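Course assignment 3, question 2. Fill in each field.
Student: A.L.
Task: Predict the tertiary structure for the chain below.
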Amino acid sequence: MSHEASIYEQIAEGIATYAGESGDVQRYIVAPAILEMIGPANGKEILDLYCGAGYFSRRLASLGAKVTAVDSSERLIGIAREINDRERFRIEYAVTEPTDLSVIEDSVFDDIVCNMGMMSIRDMSGTVAELARLVKLGGRFIFSIVHPCFCMPDACWIRDPDGKLLYEAVDNYFSERWWPSELVSPIRERSKIKHRTLSSYVNALSARGFNVRRITEPRPSSDVLILKPQLEVFDRVPAAMVIEAIFPYL
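Answer field:
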């Protein structure tokens, strides 16, 4: 094996995709970090943007939230509805583009979440503008993304001759572009995500009135590392970032 390979090829051996419902990174690292940041969900009105097949929507609903789940993929919404027909959580579904959420009234949601979906959005400014319309004053937009400083088209892991990971090399951080990635769900029609700098995300939020309050770079817990030792690499280099932005009172 070459000492240099794509970051995903090197570290994803035996690990499901990040956004897949069975994905270890998603289930054991990213989702717990978002839920911790959300805090108590009981009784809240929450929008799950880019809900995919509905895994995170069901997690939120199981905690007592009233969830509206939207995605641009009719196929994925169909899967989510079919699963929820059996589980009967309090979830409403809609197929719509993130830049046009006109099916939803203004100032409805206490929180808006987007779990590993912002990288698939083409018009980030237009999307954030819609979210500013939908969130209540004092409400929050909480979203996770693959870590923009490490997961990018030209990132690679360097190994020694025995295959041990030595360090990670990154390059062309400022080159914002689409790239084929297995980090998105294999059942999602789009197979590409867009690398954006951290400042692009923060500035897009600020331009529409959101204030970034917290950023976390979740790591696997010691219990998770015992259960899933293959995730040890993410205790050294973060796989994802979770951002909390407040839509403040005037």
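Instructor remarks: Confidence is low (pLDDT under 50) at residues 1-22. The chain has seven helices and twelve strands.
Grade: pending
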